[in-house]
Amino acid sequence: MSRLADAKAAMARDDWTAAVNLLADETSPEAAEARAIAHYGNGEFEVAVGVWESLYESRREAGENAGAGWAAANVALYLLVDTGLMAPVRSWVARADRELEGLGEVPAHALLAMVRTYERFMCGDPDGARRQARRSMELGARLNVSPAVLLGQVATARLLIADGEVEQGLAALDDAALQLMSGAVDPFTTGMLYCELVCAAQGLLAYDRAREWTDVMEHWRHGHAYGGLHGRCRVHRAELLRVSGPGAAAELEALAACDELRPWMRREFGWPLVELGNIRLRLGDLDGAEDAFLQAHRRAWPSLPGLALLRLEQGEADTATKLIADAVNNPPDLPWKERPPFGDLRLVPLLDAQSEIAFASGDTATATRAAARLSDIGERFVSPGLAACAALATARAHMLAGDPALAIGDADIAVVRWCELDAPYEAAVARVVLGSAYAASGDAVRSRLDWQAAHAEFESFGAVRRAAEVANLLAGEPRTPTHQSLTATMAWTGDRWRFAFRDTEIALSDLKGLQYLATLLSRPGHEFRALDLCGGHDVADPVPVIDVLARAAYRRRLDEVDQDIAEAQHNNDLARVDLASRDREFLLAELSGAVGLGGRLRHTGGAAERARTSVTRSLRYALDRLADHDHVLGEHLKRTVRTGSCCSYSPDTVAPINWTVRR
Q1: Is 85:589 a contact under the CB 8 Å cutoff?
Q2: Which of 87, 145, 550, 612 could disulfide-link 140, Cβ–Cβ 3.0 to 4.6 Å?
Q3: Which segments does the entry list as coiled coil (predicted)?
């Protein structure tokens, strides 16, 4: 058996490191392609792209134009999928075109049409995407390039949805899903297209369909997915758990997704970060949400509407109003596939947030405008989720206009639709408005029923702040109502930690995270610096912000962006200049953030940042072990223990627990 065959066998069992080692000295083009895939699966994105680039150069120098074009097209594909930088993608498409000029049809032509389809789609050119999708399907069928056929079908379906042909578009996506389930294409394409299906459903707030496709994707990924596909599956699971709860599970999925996607994604890494921020915002972890949103912002990834809603929660209503108004008036032109990259569907989350902020601020005019726009979108893009969103916005506008009777009907529609979609958090938000409408109409009995239901859902989700707000409504007081406190004990017995809570006692072996937990529980509400908690110990050595290989790759991407800008300026293509300039800003920010004085590589954050990472990991591991033995206590602590640069135990304001800690 040859080393190449051995390597392919290793790749088939997901032993990517073994495959990389087996292929290290292999020089054939086929081995180079396998080595690129192996490095990608091993989490070495820049190395994988570098292997494709080297293969392009070697085949070009050998006069093998078709092979050089194929390699260049693959560079473009990898950059398209994981970087979100369209200027380098266009640069490599142009190189492939030059190599293939004058040749008859070869598989690389189908691959290029496939790349061009999504480059145009993500850059907001639906007509161009539609033309390339047709070409991708035609060439793929003629040249037996199945991924090009199926990707063209999925892109066409998403374009139908963007045109308002929702039913036809979803039916086409269902057909594509069946083909994916049959194993029609390779794992890389399968994972990428499953992601497309879920993103399309999310854009319509079609959580039922998104959940079905995510479940299929989750089942498929075990034994098939590789590279960044595992992490993408996790982001989708986190998105749906943000809707269904529990919030703690959603946060864990989002954190795991960030860990898994870090080696592959570049600017697009903002996607899981924003999702993490949205989840933490719902949990009431405002500091954690801000940290995630600002990290995404530093990667040039839009953190709105989440950041605006965070500012509202922080009491900065004016700032929230300005942020969301600017986002609605100037929606980001970003090459992403996680949201609709063009058209009115991309406005839905922004308008929904604007409605919430206007309602909280008493801004009747803005709430009415947001409701009208959401209603218009909901009529043109038929979806139960969009209808629910529009109905709630309309109910808020009616409440501000002093017409609670009309608000009752619309809020009730929103509650029913969200319940049908198994979206209890959204249903609870709508129930709060419905209860307020009943209260304003003088129906205290119905009002209390809906507030009680909302309170139960928020508690179940782990939305501490929301639950406390509804508790205030139920009590009819501006402050959190008092409750009979529960008691719990955490005691060190010399060889293990013993916990007593309600009628349950458990014992756990010593863990660093439990030591940190004891410190937090001993002083509820007090913030401890992570560096103080670990005493400066257990902090890993610093690593470069980006390694030398990534820095060199970023510089190559920067050269490609500059070439793209020059070509766009020559053609007076101002929109392309703007998009490419944003790519350039991102790359320069990454490089400047990684390089210090004298050109030396900066290292990650220093002791404080490394302490934060170490303490957070230890605490989360300890709480997971605790939840294994006592689910109720473990979930309570996951909701109330805050991690980050500073850590604290923030007692549940609805059902506080008084802790006795003995060490």
Answers
A1: no
A2: 145
A3: 551-578
